[in-house]
Amino acid sequence: DTEVTQTPKHLVMGMTNKKSLKCEQHMGHRAMYWYKQKAKKPPELMFVYSYEKLSINESVPSRFSPECPNSSLLNLHLHALQPEDSALYLCASSQQAGIHYYEQYFGPGTRLTVT
Amino acid sequence: SQQGEEDPQALSIQEGENATMNCSYKTSINNLQWYRQNSGRGLVHLILIRSNEREKHSGRLRVTLDTSKKSSSLLITASRAADTASYFCATVRPLIQGAQKLVFGQGTRLTINP
Asked: Which pLDDT score, from 0 to 100, does residue A1 have?
């Protein structure tokens, strides 16, 4: 199984709402990532989890709160978002690199609209 | 900041023709990867080329790497309508505990006309 799943596919939320994005993989990957992608732009890294610990936060505003409950799951909790946060949110996973480097497997993304 | 620059930004060709996309980067690399993204969907890994490799093939794909010029190219031969997508190159930065950061180029939007 080389699939990364994300739910929901689409999400519309108001600026006062709290919602969560979910990501799951069963490939045994111990590195998981959240990316944000605006239209016609490349993905930008937000967070990296390695062995269920947050290892990288790319200066993301605190209204985005990641969580890794176990090695297969990754959540992104959203609170008090702004309209400019509307984007495609992508989850990815990869094997631990060590001295080698591996491809990342991406989920289909959650299309988020903040109204 | 994004490290890779790709050209062209957009490319439109007829089905059956070959498509070439170029990528330039700024710092030394261990490997460079190419990904495809269909409209509004997730990215799919296409090919990884290591810094000690000059050329790599996968089906209709051919990737070259010139580390002296800090550039790579992706050639898709005998294009098909299904190849219509955005193509991104990505350089890899190692992170702690074996994770890695992909730094993407701006991408090339490829359209294959039937």
From this structure: 65
pLDDT at position A97:
61
Chain B residues touching chain A at CB-CB below 8 Å = 2, 30-31, 33, 35, 40-45, 48, 50, 88, 92, 94-102, 104-107, 109
**Candidate from A6, A30, A55 with C-beta closest to B96:** A55
The string over B10-26, giving b where at least 16 C-beta atoms fall within 10 Å of a residue's C-beta and e elsewhere, is ebebeeeeebebbbbbe
Question: Which pLDDT tens digit goes with each residue over A36-76?
Answer: 999 999 999 999 998 899 988 999 999 999 999 998 999 99
Q: Tell me, yes or no, if A96 comes closer than 8 A to chain B by beta carbon.
A: yes
Q: Which residue shows structure tokens 């994300």?
A: A6
Sign for the CA dihedral angle at B23, B29, B34, B40 comes to: negative
Which residues does chain B have within 8 Å of residue A45's beta carbon, measured at their own beta carbons? 101-102
pLDDT tens for each residue of B73-113: 999 999 999 999 999 999 987 777 667 788 899 999 999 99
Q: Which residues of B touch A109 (CB under 8 A)?
A: 40-42
pLDDT at position B2: 44
Of residues A48, A28, A25, A37, the one with CA closest to residue A85: A37
Instruction: Considering only the beta carbons, identify the residue of B30, B33, B42 that sits closest to A107.
Output: B42
